[in-house]
Amino acid sequence: MKLKALLSHLHIPATIEDDPVITGIASHSKKVKPGYLFFAISGVEADGHQYIQEAFENGAAAVIGEYQKISGKGLYFYAEDTKRLLSLAASYFYDEPYKKHKMTGITGTNGKTTTSFLLQHLLVSHGVSTALFGTVHHYINSNIVKSSHTTPDPVTLQHLLNESDDQAVVMEVSSHGLEQKRIEGITYDQAIFLNLTHDHLDYHGTMESYYLCKAKLFSYLKNKGTAIICSEGTYGKRLREELSRDNNLQVWTYGKRKSDHFYIEDVGKESFNLIHETLHVTVPLPLPGEYNALNTTAAIAAALDYGIPIKSSIEYLKTFEGIPGRFEELTLYNGTEVIIDYAHTPDGVLQVLEAASKKAGNRPLYHVFGFRGNRDLTKRQEMIGISLEYSTKTVLTVDDLNGVDRDQLVLETKEAIPKTSQMPIVIADRTEAIILALKEAPPNSVIIITGKGPEKYKESYHHPSDSDLATVELFQSQNKAALL
Ligand SMILES: CC(=O)N[C@H]1[C@@H](OP(=O)(O)OP(=O)(O)OC[C@H]2O[C@@H](n3ccc(=O)[nH]c3=O)[C@H](O)[C@@H]2O)O[C@H](CO)[C@@H](O)[C@@H]1O[C@H](C)C(=O)N[C@@H](C)C(=O)N[C@H](CCC(=O)O)C(=O)O
Ligand SMILES: Nc1ncnc2c1ncn2[C@@H]1O[C@H](COP(=O)(O)OP(=O)(O)OP(=O)(O)O)[C@@H](O)[C@H]1O
C-alpha cells in the first residue's frame, strides 16, 4: 500500500514527492520494520513521541504524531487523535476485514467471556464458523491464538480479522479498548450490553464516564444493526431509553420483566424458562446462577438474530462444555466441592457467591480470594463485605501483584476489611491460603476460589503450583497418596 493513499484515507493533507510503499503499521517503536508507518501516541505510561527517532532508526518510512513539529529528519505528519487514526489506518491497511464477517461486539462489566463462549458454541453448533476475541484466548480459523488483552491493540486486531476466514466474529469489547479507540474502523452487525457495575474506576474516574465509554460500542453498529441490551440495572435501562430513540437500530431487550423482548423466570439449578413473543420454552442452564441465565439469554437472542431458531439453540446448549475458570467445579476425595471462578468485581463476587451458597445449602462455604495490585482500590471493601456476608469463612490472600510489594498489598487488604465482628483470615501466600481452606473445611463443604480463574500465577509461592486449579490438584494428590 502506498503512503499517499493511506494519508488520503485518513484525511491528512500531504504534499510529498516520494510515495513510499508502506509495509506495515506500528505504534510501538520497537516493532517498527523497514517501510513501516509509525503512529506516535501519548499513553498512560509513556509518550510515543519520545520514540519517533527510534522508529526512524528501525526503518520507519513515515511517522504520524500529535506534535506540530519534531526535531530531526524523516517524513513526519501532524494530525490530531493518533489513537483513532492508528485504528483507521490498520483497518484500511488490512482491507477493512470486518466486511468479510458478521460482527458481534459484547460489552459489560461482567459476563463478556461467558456470553461470547456461549454464542460461539451456538453458532458453531449451527455450522457457522466463528472466530472469538477475548480474555481467555482468541480463536481464529479453528486455532487458538494466545490473548494478551481482552480487546487486542488495533494492529493485532485488524491483522487477525484479516487472517480469519470465519463467517462470524464474536468479540469481547473492553472499556479500555473502547476508550483507546482500538475498535475504530470496525462496523458491527450486532452489539450486546450485559451490565455495568463498579469496576475500573482507577481508569475511568466515575461511573458516568465508565458508562459513556461502554455505550460508545453502539455507535459502531451498522445501519439497522441489532442492539441487545440487558434491561436489569439502571445503566441497561438508560441505554435502552437512549437507543430506542434511534430508528436506525433494532433494539432488543432481555431481563426479568414481561416488557422485555426476551424475558426469563423460574431460574432453577438445571434450567430456566424463557419467553419470547408467543414462545414459552425451558432452557437448560449451562452454568449455575441467575446471572448465567441472563448471559445465556443474551447468547440465544444474538443467535436468533443470526437466524438460529431458539429451539435449535436449546438443543445446542445441551453439549456446552463450560469455560475455563468460570464456575469450574471439581470434587475432592472427602466430598468437598471446589469452585474456581474469575469473579473480580463486587457484583461478580456477589453473583457467584449467591450461586455458590445456593449450592452449599446448609453446608459450610469457604471463600478464598485476593486483590490485584495497582487496580481500582475503591472496590475492595465492598468485595470483602460481600464475602463475609455469604461465606462461613473468608480467607484473604493476594492476586497478581502488578508491581506492588506483596507486604504492601497485604497491608492494603487488611486496611480494606470492614469493621465487623467477623474477621477474615489473611494469608499472603496464595497457595498457602488455598491449602488452609482445603485442610480446614469439613468434609462435604463448598470452597470457592475467586479472582484468577484459569490464569497462571504471575508470582511464585510456597507450594509448587502455577494456578488455583493446580494448587487444588496438588493438595488432592498429596492427600490421596496419604490415604493409600
Ligand atoms: C492502561 C492501558 O490500557 N494501556 C494500554 C495502552 O497503553 P498506552 O497507550 O498507555 O501506552 P504506553 O505504555 O503509555 O506508551 C505510549 C506509547 O508509546 C509507545 N512506546 C512505548 C515504549 C517504547 O519503547 N516505544 C514506544 O513506541 C507505546 O507503544 C504507546 O503507543 O495501549 C497499549 C497498546 O495497545 C496496551 O498494551 C496497554 O495495555 C496495558 C498493558 C494494560 O494492562 N491494559 C489493560 C488494563 C487492558 O487493556 N485491559 C482490558 C480488559 C480490562 C477488563 O475488562 O478487565 C483489555 O482489553 O485487555
Ligand atoms: N452477567 C453477569 N453479571 C454479574 N456477574 C457475572 C456475570 N457473568 C459472569 N459474572 C461473574 O464475573 C466473572 C467473570 O465473568 P466473565 O469472564 O464472563 O466476564 P468478563 O466480562 O469477560 O470479565 P473480564 O473481561 O474481566 O474477563 C464470572 O466468573 C462470574 O463470577
UniProtKB/TrEMBL annotation:
Gene Ontology MF terms in the entry: UDP-N-acetylmuramoylalanyl-D-glutamate-2,6-diaminopimelate ligase activity
Ranges of residues in domain Mur ligase central: 106-303
Pathway(s) where this gene product acts: Cell wall biogenesis; peptidoglycan biosynthesis
Modifications the protein undergoes after translation, according to the UniProt entry: Carboxylation is probably crucial for Mg(2+) binding and, consequently, for the gamma-phosphate positioning of ATP.
Keyword Cell cycle: yes
Swiss-Prot/TrEMBL cofactor(s): Mg(2+)
Domain Mur ligase C-terminal, first and last residues per copy: 325-453
Residue positions binding ATP: G108, T109, N110, G111, K112, T113, T114
Enzyme class per UniProt: ligase
N6-carboxylysine, modified sites: K214
InterPro entries referenced in this protein's UniProt entry, alphabetically: Mur-like_cat_sf (IPR036565), Mur_ligase_C (IPR004101), Mur_ligase_C_dom_sf (IPR036615), Mur_ligase_cen (IPR013221), Mur_ligase_N (IPR000713), MurE/MurF_N (IPR035911), UDP-N-AcMur-Glu-dNH2Pim_ligase (IPR005761)
Signal peptide: none
Annotated transmembrane regions: none
Domain annotation Mur ligase N-terminal catalytic: ranges: 22-69
Binding site for UDP-N-acetyl-alpha-D-muramoyl-L-alanyl-D-glutamate: S29, T150, T151, S174, Q180, R182
Protein's cellular compartments: Cytoplasm
Keywords: ATP-binding, Cell cycle, Cell division, Cell shape, Cell wall biogenesis/degradation, Cytoplasm, Ligase, Magnesium, Nucleotide-binding, Peptidoglycan synthesis
EC number: 6.3.2.-
Job description of the protein: Catalyzes the addition of an amino acid to the nucleotide precursor UDP-N-acetylmuramoyl-L-alanyl-D-glutamate (UMAG) in the biosynthesis of bacterial cell-wall peptidoglycan.
PANTHER family given in the database record: MUR LIGASE FAMILY MEMBER (PTHR23135), UDP-N-ACETYLMURAMOYL-L-ALANYL-D-GLUTAMATE--2,6-DIAMINOPIMELATE LIGASE MURE HOMOLOG, CHLOROPLASTIC (PTHR23135:SF4)
Similarity comment: family membership: Belongs to the MurCDEF family. MurE subfamily.
Protein name per the record: UDP-N-acetylmuramyl-tripeptide synthetase
The species this protein was found in: Fictibacillus barbaricus
Lineage, highest ranks first: Bacteria, Bacillati, Bacillota, Bacilli, Bacillales
Protein encoded by which gene: murE
